User: Fold these one by one.
Assistant:
Number 1:
Amino acid sequence: MTATTTDNQIVSEKLDAVLASGPRPPRANALTTTLAFGWRAILRIKHVPEQLFDVTLFPIISVLMFTYLFGGAIAGSTSAYLQFLLPGILVQTVVMITMYTGVALNTDIEKGVFDRIRTLPVWRPSALVGALLGDAVRYTLASIFVVALGLILGYRPDGGAAGVVAGVAVLMVFCFAFSWIWTWVGLLARSAQSVMGISMMVLFPLAFLSPVFVDPKTMPEWLQTFVEINPISHAVYAVRGLMSGDSVGDEVLWTFIAAAVLIAIFAPLTMRAYTRRR
Amino acid sequence: METGIAIETNELVKTFGEKRAVDGIDLRVPQGGVYGFLGPNGAGKTTTIQILATLLRPDGGIAKVFGHDVARDPEAVRSLVSLTGQYSSVDEDLTGRENLLLLGRVLGFSREQARNRCDDLLEAFGLTDAATKQVKRYSGGMRRRLDIAASIVVTPQLLFLDEPTTGLDPRSRNQVWDIVRALTARGTTVLLTTQYLDEADQLADRIAVIDTGRIIAEGTSSQLKASVGSGALHVHLNDAADRPRAIDILSRAFGDEVFPGSDPADVTGRVDDRSKVPAALATLAADGIALAGFSYGQPTLDEVFLALTGHTADDAEAAAQTNDTEGAVA
């Protein structure tokens, strides 16, 4: 009981000492502040592990459903289809969960955390970049999950461990870039629900009108054109190539170009919305 | 820029669509002490603070904080001010300690310095035992204290406190007042918004009364009260039908400053000389007007508004008021 009586009590002498203490520390550099905000995102995973449900359940459902539903019809056998499908599902899963970046940001705005962050004298993009880096941890967890599940079901990456790691690394770069779309949407949308709605509307066609599930050669020509423009397609080709040890041609390069273009468009839009909200 | 001025604004304007939330505000807030913004919900207090804290860009006019233009040099302003918003601005999912540590690191402390600073703050604000609990498990008062602690991780030159005691119990409110006094004793200037006259009275050295985006009165608490009368008599009638007669009687007793209240059975009279109160009440009784209750006290925000604007705070923002205002639709 004695311990609790000290709580809820303002300690005047201590308060005075706290207010009096020392000069202002030097301004923190951009790396420190970015990493600090990244640390916050990781702490949130620790305190709210429920947010990993999407990361874990979504890939399980997709892998099982599509492998056993389409495997026989598309590739003749489920095991052959899994070899083709798994890298694509990996890309689709991680790209799909990038939308929670926008949802989390919008929630911050709603709760007022955002107003405090915006009045801090720090490098302006650090809160956003930090959040995206923290999200990279979630993406990595999801990737590990998908690959492990694939291995259990019989997926064998011919690219070996190195190929898998390279594939995941390329995917991380792509998703970091892709997330800037959602930071922008997250800043403009009125509610977390509308962020979800907008994200699904954009992601659903992009994720499915891609080479994730079938070879685009079976599609009508106009659709093939769309698939070739879709940045997710290049990420799928690159990751699949790296993981299965095939030649990837310039697909990795195209993925990085797509990433650069996404950042070049959406990072400035995001920062503009961030500085002049309302 | 002369010294001693914390905030200076000139013809400050902010519009949201058709609404002029801030409609030409001129302010001169001296350095040191507490400056109070008094006004009902929707008067423009929060919008003004958000402009001064660099969260919003003004649509017109100039605002300077310690000589730095908030629109042109927001970065300089941010390094001098801190904002404790109306709603909790800490991360509810994190613990109190993690919230403060994060800010300590972001504001430039080394890991060790941030840890020490954070422990000192938690102790000073009576949050040591709750340090490792998630903020969503905190009481309203604890959350508010953490919020203020988060604003002084680096002691600011100027602290904005937006309705710091709204929704708090009296004990927590007194704690917040103690914190504000400690801050000003150490030289921080505090700009505080409130809906409560007694809060402004307790804390503020100068008060600006805001209504519909404009400052309608400015001065020390005693100056403002002089313009409203030293006190007010509130009468709650048994029968609302007696009101016109009651107003008539009280007007004769106190002069003209008698108003119907927002409740149809309420009458409020401005009283300069409190020795007249017993006689006025006796006259009501002699006339057969039964009272359900009466009180004599400091003028409320409503009375300040009545005296300064001719309408009540309720009318100013009827929709925003949570009180029972049935029958008071403007």
Number 2:
Amino acid sequence: MKTVRVLRGLIAAIAGGVIGCLMILLPELRRAPSPPVIAFIPRTTGINLAEDMRRGAQAAAQMAGYRIYWNAPTTEDDVDRQIRITESAVRGGARAVILGPSNPRGVTTMLDQLQKHKVPVVIVQTEPPIPPGSYLTSVTPDQWQFGKLAAQRVMQITGGSGQVAIVGLDRATPETLTRARSFIDSLASHPDIEIVTQAQGSVQTLEAEQSARVVIHAFPALRVIFAVSADATQGAVLALDSVEPKAKIALVGCDRDLFLADDLRSGKIDSLVGIDAYSTGFEAMRAAVTGAGGRPLPMPEHVRPILITREKAAID
Amino acid sequence: MVSPETTAAVSSRRTQRRVRPLLLDLVILAASAAIAAGVTAGVLHWQRSPSRGLPYRDEFSSGNNSEWAAYDGNWNVRSGIMINESNERGAKLVTGSPYWTNYALDADISLNSIGDAGVITRVSDAEPGVDSYSGIYGGLRVRDEALVLGVADHAWNETVSKPMPEPISSNVWYHIRMAVQGCRVDLSAHRDGQREATQIAVTIPGCPVKGMIGLRSYDSGGQWKNIRVTKLPQ
């Protein structure tokens, strides 16, 4: 009888202990409901282009009552990390994904999987590696226009003759190849413009700088460098800075990114071809919201780039 | 022959015998619930005390950095110096209590290349990624030779930057101090051996209110030593 009483007391004490702990801990575990999430995973973040896109996407998301999950790899070429971040965001409940593929071919399998699981995906920054469909669309720059605008500027700078170099070609970022091809096509009818080299690029600024420096030293009569990406433009700025005496080489760059706008204003860059990243982010989010709401994604959209010269940047 | 009164008394005693242990069980239950609730609340209060673990100091002398959590980067301790050999954007190393509120963080830092490097305070919700944390960053930026301060909330919002008196040199030690008290942030930095510091003092509306400390670099490796955190008045 006594044993039973002791046991009962013990059980009451334990139950009381558990209840007491839960009384304190349960309110801690309760979470306020949060709005639905759309993941935005650009190539990398913390740079002007990405931050402008984020601001545009943020505005569109707020209007639609969505929250952004914003994250990206710390280097632009880290496709494995980008896949992990995207998959983790989807596992965490993201209703749609906006993706700027680090390497379009590297994310093909993931995109197939997302389509299979009916997760709407909007591609930005570069063309999608697979055809658009019910769950895949894009809001991307018109890459061909980049090369055309750059060629027009080169014609103005050179007056139609002289040596021109292209730097920053990178197979992992197909838009660099498209921009270069369109640039060459646009200058094909001007035989006095000589494209002396097409140099490989890198997302590492120091490597891009080294590549540009080699080109500058190899071609002393160079009139213009066309840098087909932001990293290539940044590398060319650093390389031109370090050339003594200062070479009279005009730099036509691509993408309003990194600190290139400052370099444009200070005259280190002649001109930049770029898109309105805020609008791109805004439109991409609007498409993602449509998909997240269960409606068919809009058709792919191309954003036309503009040429910003030093003079125009100074006015802005 | 048993009288009805006797039967009633026996019945009452039986009831009492049944109820009394139940009452006792209830008392034990209530008492232990109250004690457990009190102890749990006490432990939580202690755990969440903004003073717990302060002052904090890490000289990296033991080579043991297990109390630090790395989010990207390639972090190693050598001869009392924490080194990040990676120049990826936004590598972070975080330690301390998530409940620290008002404190000053002192560190000596040296940049490896052209990006920027510094310290972060009131860090929460950290994960791998460039600005993937909530907190306040203060650091030296080679690009515009400036002391820079901003808030990260899984995105970067620069608050202010101030030019350094001389170009920032790689592999030279700078002392940096960030004091956070309420939403007032005082950031200062000076080159080792020099007395005059570049200073920033701002109030950041809607600032992060509590969190850990950390080391961070962006597009540059870096070196950190003599990490100290001291409590400031609440």
